[in-house]
Fold this sequence. Notes:
CATH architecture of the domain at 144-278: 3-Layer(aba) Sandwich
Number of strands: 14
CATH topology of the domain at 144-278: Protein Transport Mog1p, Chain A
Largest sheet: 7 strands, antiparallel
Helix content: 25-40%
Strand content: 25-35%
Order of helices and strands: EEHHEEHEEEEEHEEEEHE
Shape: rod-shaped
Number of helices: 5
Radius of gyration: 62 Å
Strand order of the largest sheet: 7-8-9-13-12-11-10
Amino acid sequence: MSERTCLRCGAPYEEGATVCFSCGASIGELETPTQPVRAPKGHVSGPTDATPDSATSATHSDALTTSGAPDTPPTEPAPASSPHTRRVTVGTSLPVAVTPTVARKPHQRRWPVIGVALVVVIALLAGGGYILRAALAGPPVPKTLVYRDPNGRFNLTVPALWSVTRQSGGALLTDSSGANSVTISYAPAQAGQTPASVADMLASQQGLQPAAPARIGGDAWQQRSGQVTGQDGVTRMIVVFVDVRDSEVYTIQLSSPIASYSTINNLVYQPLLASFTFG
C-alpha cells in the first residue's frame, strides 16, 4: 500500500482518511486540484511550504526586489493642476488627481420674466389702441351747449343731445324722443299787462294752478303748474313761468309726461333755468 502524505504539513495518513491528524487539514480539499491565484500587486505573501501554489509563489517572487518590496510601477504624468484640483494619496499608490464636482445652479424660473413681458406688451397694445382711437375720433361731444338768441334777448345752456329750433320770438327745445320740451318766447307787452295777469290768462287756458314765484335770470317770475291730458291721451306736467322786462313779456313753458317729469326736472329743467340770463 502506498504511503500518502498531507500536502499541507507533509505528515503521512492512511488510505481512506478524510482529515490529517497532524494539522487537521481536510484530505479531500487538499486532493482537489486548485488553480493558482495571482496575488495582487504590492502585497507580499509569507513563506510557505511546497504546495501546488508554488508556481504562483515563484512567479510572484520575480516581482520582488532584493529588499522584498514590490517594484515601483512606472510613473504616469499627473494631470495638470487647476484651481479646482487637489492631489490625494491613497496608501502607497500614486497620487490621484481629484476634481471636485461643482454643483450647477438650478435654472431660474422664467415665469416672472414672462409675466412682466406680457404686461409690457399689453400696455403697449392698449396705448397704441388709445392713440389710434383718439386720432380717428372726432372732437369730444360736450355735455351741454350754450344757446344764444339771434335777437340778443337771452342766453341759456342746453343739453348737448337736445335739439334747438329757432322761432321768430324765441326757441323750442326738445329731447331726442320729443316727449319732453321747453318753449321760450318773448313778445311786446300790451298796456296794463303784468306777469301775474299774463300767467293767470295762460293758467285759465290750460287748466293750471297758481304756484310760488321762481327766481330766474335775476327776476322773480310768476309760476303756474298742473297736470294736463292732451289730445293724444297722455297726461303731462305743465309748468309756466312769466316775466315782464323792458316792455316785453317773457314766457318759459316746461312739458313732460308725469312718469318722467321728476327726473327731467332735476337733470335738465333746473340746470337750464339756472343758466338763463337776459341779453
